[in-house]
Amino acid sequence: MKSKTGVLLGRLMRNIIRSPDTIITVAITPIMMMLLFVYVFGGAIETGTDNYVNYLLPGILLITIASAVAYTSLRLFTDIKSGLMARFISMPIKRSSVLWAHVLTSLISNALTVGVVILVALLMGFRSNADIVDWLAVVGILGLFTLALTWLAVIPGLTAGSMEGATAYSYPLIFLPFISSAFVPTETMPKIVRAFAENQPVTSIVNSIRSLLYEGTVGNGIWTALAWCVGIIVIAYLIASKVFKRQLG
Question: For the ABC transmembrane type-2 domain, which residue ranges apply (predicted)?
Fold first, then answer.
């Protein structure tokens, strides 16, 4: 399975290497948002931090991932409509290898895009006191978040009837960080909005990353963040696997 998955992964990565504009295009929107919020709105937003980009970056990274996973749906949709997926499953390879190749491609391409966004944030003044262990924890959380959204992306990629339908699901995911602690503290929100913000996955994930980057410690909130990520991965994986079996026989 590993060798077959590697071959399929190589095919997808070659497509990305030949079209690096995919990574650049995905990075542009969160970078523009970061520039807008830091240099236009940042002076009017009170977060208790000296540099607003430090407060903002964790949420921007999640938006970057939410934007990028739409390409997983698009690649799956394209493979199915072109007949390539049917050809793959007729070959002597484990069928799950096909899906895992798309998921691993998402992990690698997202890592590259997130790296680009962090480089821009450094140019804008982002600084962190985190040590290597803290950064590894941040990478782990971002990786789990990417896996969670990617397996969600697999479902519309397999079931959509059009290209627009395959990618439309990403818009609510991109919007979700706006109703969280990603841009402003939840304490400033009206009660109903605050209740939602404090009990949705993005807030716990953002708070955990922010604590690792600037405080070097995390509280019990990290367990909530991990529970959200792992829970979404398990549920989305089970649904995607069931849909894949039903769709392709």
Answer: 21-247
